[in-house]
Amino acid sequence: MKIGFNEGTTFESATLEENLEYCEKYGYDYIEIRSIDQLKDYLTRHSLADLKQYFDSHQIKPLSLNALCFFNNRTKEDEKAVITEFKEYLEICRAIECEYICAVPSNLDDTEKGKNLVPEVNESCVRVLTELSDLAKPYGVKIAVEFIGIPENTVNTFEQAYEIVRTIDRDNVGLVYDTFQFTGMNSNLANVTKEAADKIFIFHINDVDDYPVGQMRDTDRCYPGEGIIDLQVHLAKMKELNYDFVASVELFRPEYYQMNPEEVIKKAKETTDAVIAKYY
Questions:
Q1: What is the rounded distance in angstroms from the CA atom of residue 277 to the CA atom of residue 199?
Q2: Residue 278: pLDDT above 90?
Q3: Per-residue pLDDT tens for 145-178?
Q4: What's the half-sphere exposure (Cβ side, CA atoms, 13 Å) at 163?
């Protein structure tokens, strides 16, 4: 299993240049680039050609652009903006040879009506993601849909996200399996079947403080092995399903943003390695 680093872990404390330097130093294999802030900041000083050259000359490689946010159940004007943003991401992926773009469903406050029935949510997701799939195909880019395990998100369980991806039935549309998102709304591990495993593109590993289901938030995440998620159960499932690609650590804890980013990146690698060692 390769190890990845998601820039959300240091997005208030480090630049992309620093993240690349420290991830290379501590032996990460992949990085998930925050396209909405850290990449934009990087491009004020460098070019995409510079970034491609860095990846060509170092061990670490780009895993995903993270993320295309709030793509479903939008107004026509907002949806048009989402499509435009996605097209820009495709050009970035082409320039740096990045295979995945993560796509995050809308929160209730970002949808056209606020609250939408599940069939309305799923229909919108299928329609928009199908269009994105068509756009991505010539680029060889895959879309990894990340359900968000909080009550206010329109797609907040593995089961719902998989149903959407299964309905689309495209080779370049799959899922992000995130241990925090899975725990947040109590998704059912029994639904992660052999069939569903074929659609798992990216595996996010993290832990979380001990809050009731529905009350956990990104800011409650912590280093793997320091919270209440039974990561061994998730890793055993990944092993059972022959998933052996990347475990990408993604944390959004405010305390970590106040720390030296090198120390955060170092400890995130150490704790992730320790957790997965039993299975990989």
A1: 24
A2: no
A3: 999 999 999 999 999 999 999 999 999 999 999 9
A4: 12
Q: If you search the block for the tokens 């329609």, which residue do you land on?
A: 127
How many whole angstroms from its chain centre is CA 44? 24
User: Residue 49 burial (CB < 10 Å; 0-12/13-18/19+)?
Assistant: exposed
- The burial of 239, by beta-carbon neighbours within 10 Å (0-12 exposed, 13-18 middle, 19 or more buried), is given as middle
Going by C-alpha positions, the residue among 43, 163, 158 that lies closest to residue 92 is 43
Alpha carbon distance 28, 16 (integer Å) = 14
For β-strands 61-69 and 100-104, DSSP reports them as parallel
Closest CA to 72 of 117, 33, 34: 117
**How far, in Å, are 145, 208, 228 from residue 213 at the CA level?**
22, 11, 12
Contact by Cβ (8 Å): 72, 124: yes
Q: Which helix (H) or strand (E) holds 109?
A: none
* pTM beyond 0.85, yes or no: yes
- Report the pLDDT averaged over residues 118-136: 98
Give, to the nearest 10 degrees, the angle between helix 118-136 and helix 76-96.
40
AA identity, residue 119: P
